[in-house]
């Protein structure tokens, strides 16, 4: 799941080719979060204090969790909206009443379409 990948908690390893791609992706994410960490801790005592553990953590887990919490809705919107027909991530209806999603995208509440990203992978 994208949330697990962003937060550095993905336990799925896949085949050898996918493992190699995952290593490249993980390195890129670490580099991105290292840069974000550097930027947010340069000024401001609150953020320096919050991400103190991340100073010694090359994975930046706390920062990644916070980033996901702040950007989760936008990421899911990007995944579920403006998809080519047939590549939809979720079904076209909102509930048991059969009402259609807005442009095959979201239900009227505009909520994230899943909460699986907070369920541990081994339970999904």
With helices defined by DSSP (H or I, 4 residues minimum), what is the helix count?
A: 4
Q: How big is the Rg?
A: 17 Å
Mean pLDDT: 76
What's the domain count?
1
> In sequence order, what are the helices and strands, one letter per element?
HHHH
- Distance between the terminal alpha carbons, to the nearest Å? 10 Å
Low-confidence stretches: none
The total beta strand count reads: 0
Describe this structure in words.
The protein is an all-alpha fold and 124 residues long. 47% of the residues lie in helices and 0% in strands. The longest helix is centred in the N-terminal third of the chain and has 27 residues, at 16-42. The protein is built from four helices and no strands. It has helices at residues 2-6, 16-42, 45-50, 61-80. It has one domain.
